[in-house]
Write a structure and sequence with these properties.
The protein has about 110 residues and is α+β, with helices and mostly antiparallel strands. The protein is built from three helices and five strands, in the order E-H-E-E-H-E-E-H.
């Protein structure tokens, strides 16, 4: 749940599994999806079959944040390819590093 008041929202957990499974850490790193968006240096478009949403969605790397594990809803395992996760990493990096590559076609 994100926002105030909290609203159910699709997110991608991007923190390391060691953090995600640790009983000593009560939060995970997440990047939210939005149903509206545009191509940009910190956004990635995902098609419905790729993330399970009914329409196209945009992952917004500039909104990376922490979320308490207790607020996470149902976990839907949809493992992305290594190449797609590198694109996610680059979109996040562009949010704070102006020298990060601008291409969405990050090498495998």
């Amino acid at each position: 749940m994100l926002g105030n008041p909290p609203v159910r929202h699709w997110v991608l957990v991007v923190s390391l599994d060691s953090r995600n499974t640790s009983e000593r850490v009560d939060s995970v790193l997440i990047v939210p999806f939005g149903s509206q968006g545009a191509d940009g240096p910190t956004t990635l478009r995902f098609e419905p079959g790729e993330v399970g949403l009914p329409g196209p969605s945009w992952l917004k790397g500039h909104f990376i944040t922490t979320l308490k594990k207790s607020l996470l809803g149902e976990r839907l395992p949809r493992p992305f390819s290594a190449a797609r996760m590198r694109q996610v990493s680059v979109a996040i990096q562009r949010a704070f590093d102006p020298d990060a590559p601008l291409t969405k076609n990050v090498a495998v």
